[in-house]
Amino acid sequence: MTVPATTFGYAATPRGRVHYAEHGAGPPVVLLHQSPRSWDEFREVLPILGARHRAIAPDLIGFGASARGAEHSIASYAAGVLDLLDALGLETVDLAGHHTGGVVALEVAAAAPARVRRLVLSSTPYLDAAARARRKDRPAVDEVAEKPDGSHLTELWNRRTAFYPPDRPDLLTRFVRDALAVWPDVEAGHRAVSAYRMEERIGLVGCATLCVGASADPFAFPDLEPLAAHLADAATAVIEGGMVPLEYQAGPFAHLVLDFLR
């Protein structure tokens, strides 16, 4: 039997063209990537979810091959997702996001609760005044100064090495490719997360939510329980040994999503 391939398209929206990948047919599930990634973060996830769903992974506005937005903010990214749903004729979807994508997914569910049936928040931080204060003086993760000899590319690689499995340079290569696609605004998505006032929005989320934590993710794993505690209807799941790159735990993540949406 021939396995259907992932397909790609562009949707015309009021904020510009949104690039997306999709796989499969059935109830739609939309997947939102972290910063500064693209749909490629879900390359391995799409075929697994596509066995039962129409799995759609867009490049958020400002990232990948989508239009460059005038504003980098969680509200703007979320509005771009809602524009995409309109363009694709999708009234209600299941929604999942990883890191920055999880924050965006939460804002979509808060801004348009009738359009999100179920929500999956993977490695998603809980952001309140205390978290914003901690992030204010935290060194930038990916911001490096461009150098004539190209050594800034090695610096960008090295800054991420500790958060990636040592035997998977292919994952870091994919990260660097996506980071260069948004250069020099490689840190803009992280700044948007750090400015988001989640504590004012999270109470508007009314749908059932699964909060997924990767145990070896130093950034987000400590927030797994606090995030779930602030949601009205939330369950938690842990991917043991999971790290920052979603591709590393694509199989376990995809099957958690399938079980939750079932």
Automatic annotation (TrEMBL):
UniProt-recorded Gene Ontology molecular function terms: hydrolase activity
Pfam families xrefs: Abhydrolase_1
Alphabetically ordered keywords of this record: Hydrolase
Transmembrane segments: none
Annotated ranges, domain AB hydrolase-1: 27-163
Family matches, as PANTHER family: HYDROLASE, PUTATIVE (AFU_ORTHOLOGUE AFUA_2G14860)-RELATED, MONOACYLGLYCEROL LIPASE
Record-given protein name: Alpha/beta fold hydrolase
Species for this entry: Actinomadura parmotrematis
